[in-house]
Amino acid sequence: MLIRDARQVRLLEQKIIAAAAIKRGFTVHMRQKYLYVTGNGVGPHKFLKGWTSAQGQFTRLFRNKQATKDVLKAFGASVPEGALFHAHEAERALDYAGYLGWPVVLKPDTGNKGRHVYVNISDAATFRNRFSTIAGTTQTVVVEKMVPYSTEYRFFYLDKKIVSIIRRIPANVTGDGKSTIDALVGTKNTLRKARGNGRYGRFPMIVLDEESRALLSERGLTPNSVLPAGETLHLRKIGNLSAGGDTISVMAEFHPSYAERMEAIFRNLPGCLLLGLDVFVRDHSQPCDESNYTIIEVNPAPGYRMHVYPWQGEAVDLGGLIVDAIFPDRPSVAPRNAPVSRSQFLHVIKKALLRRFRMNRHMR
Known about the structure:
This protein is of the alpha+beta class and 364 residues long. The protein has four domains: 6-52, no CATH class; 54-79 and 149-170 and 236-364, D-amino Acid Aminotransferase, Chain A, domain 1 (2-Layer Sandwich); 81-146, 2-Layer Sandwich (Dna Ligase, domain 1); 174-231, no CATH class. The protein has helices at residues 12-23, 65-74, 90-100, 124-135, 181-195, 210-218, 256-267, 305-308, 318-326, 342-363, and strands at 27-31, 34-39, 42-48, 51-52, 82-86, 104-108, 118-121, 140-145, 152-158, 161-169, 172-174, 232-234, 246-249, 274-281, 293-299. The radius of gyration is 22 Å and the shape is globular. The chain starts with 11 loop residues before the first helix and ends with a helix.
């Protein structure tokens, strides 16, 4: 189906790409679930959610969290120390957690949107319980040392440049001194729904589920408790937008050395066109060094919503930037989705395996 208006497209990321492509006079089609774009003698390239066929094949590695960390560490990036365990290795994983030192984080090696990610685990009983939960959904579990600072940011890497930085804040409400937590959630959800109409897309609602109620219980609160005026209460431990988190555009506030560091790391890796980098930063106003940041995960099919429609701060024309990167006015001779050469692949994997071997030898 020929697309003449982005409103014909349902999924937000595809809608954003379609709008930018149509504005530039490119040809846009919809076939089954894929959006196809052709322009400036390039393409067609496919788009589905945050994924594009213009992406290099090497980025498939980023679907596995532990392999991602091993490769990044081999190229000098700061990542959490951790290891991968099979679902039946709960006791061996517990021994490793003791080696790392509490607290630790448990999560599936594959997955997204923060599902089954458990942070700040500080005892064996909780560890076994959370490990069992994850093992019931996947074959492999990552155990890693918890980063001592927890301000989370999403860097958007595009065509060798960082083009946006978003602070991700867990779902939260702020007290007014008279409303219950349940009522505050309802009020904020009303606002999120109102801002989700029209050009803003949809902001996921905050849900008082089992996790939220457990966090309330830890603080001696219930959904019927009244928060003091001005007090902010987090209802999640992680800042995923899909779980009702807030997104604040902060690139202008960051020391430029962080963008420079991320660009230097990912330029070393073949085929990386666009990536979402989840990074914890201790103090974004200070220069970047190994003690001040940690790359937690890399998403090869990142969402666009938080950058195009942040809850607060300046929006980024991400659709236009992506379309211009994939369909430049003067296409390069080499296609952007050229397969990774054998020598490139072996170089990256060799460095990662050597690093893993040294760590295992140290544990013996």
